[in-house]
Amino acid sequence: MILDTPVSRTVLHVGCGVHRPEKLHSLFHSSEWREVRLDIDPAVQPDIVASITDLSMVADGSVDAVWSSHNVEHLHAHQVPVALAEFRRVLKPDGFALITLPDLQAVAALVAEDKLDEAVYLSAAGPIAPLDMLFGLRSAIARGNEYMAHRTGFTAQTLGKALLAAGFAAVKVTKDKPSFNLWAMAYVTPPAGTAKPS
C-alpha cells in the first residue's frame, strides 16, 4: 500500500522576529508547509540572519511563498524596490508573496480627527495608536529596539504599484479596516482566471 504524503512547500517568513507559531499566517498552518525564518536580528534566532534587502543566502526560485508581516515599512523608501524585487527573485514560478503592513490612508483619517496618540486597537504588543502605526511601536523603540522604527509607508495604490514594478505579474491589495492594515497577495504568475494588469 502506498501512502500519500503531503508535498512539502516552503514559506520564507521574512522579518520573523521571535519565534511564535501564531506569527505564521494561518494559510501556512498545514503540514504541507515548512517555515524558514529570516530576520536581521540574530537575537531572535532565525534560520537565516539577513536583511530583507539582501536575500542572497536564498537561491533564485527556491521558495513557494514569502510571508512578510509588518516589516516592509521599516525600510527607507529607496530600499523598498530592492526588498520587493528580492521577494520576487526567490519565488518559484507558481509562487506568491503575502504582505501586510499599515494602511497610511486609514491612519491619516485618524490623524485628521486629532486622534494621533489615542489607542485605536489592542495588539499582542499592547495598545496601538496612529502614532505607532506611522513611526513604529513606541514601547519597543523605547526599550532600545531600533529595528521597530518605521521609515516609509503605503496606501493600497502605492503598495500595488510597488509590487508590479518589482516584477510581480498580478497583485491584489485589500484593506483590513478594523486593524488599519493593508494586505497584498502578489503572484509571480497570474492565477487561472486572473487578468494580467495592463
Automatic annotation (TrEMBL):
<dbReference type="GO" id="GO:0032259">
    <property type="term" value="P:methylation"/>
</dbReference>
<keyword id="KW-0808">Transferase</keyword>
<dbReference type="Pfam" id="PF08241">
    <property type="entry name" value="Methyltransf_11"/>
</dbReference>
<feature type="domain" description="Methyltransferase type 11">
    <location>
        <begin position="13"/>
        <end position="99"/>
    </location>
</feature>
<keyword id="KW-0489">Methyltransferase</keyword>
<dbReference type="GO" id="GO:0008757">
    <property type="term" value="F:S-adenosylmethionine-dependent methyltransferase activity"/>
</dbReference>
<dbReference type="InterPro" id="IPR029063">
    <property type="entry name" value="SAM-dependent_MTases_sf"/>
</dbReference>
<protein>
    <submittedName>
        <fullName>SAM-dependent methyltransferase</fullName>
    </submittedName>
</protein>
<dbReference type="InterPro" id="IPR013216">
    <property type="entry name" value="Methyltransf_11"/>
</dbReference>
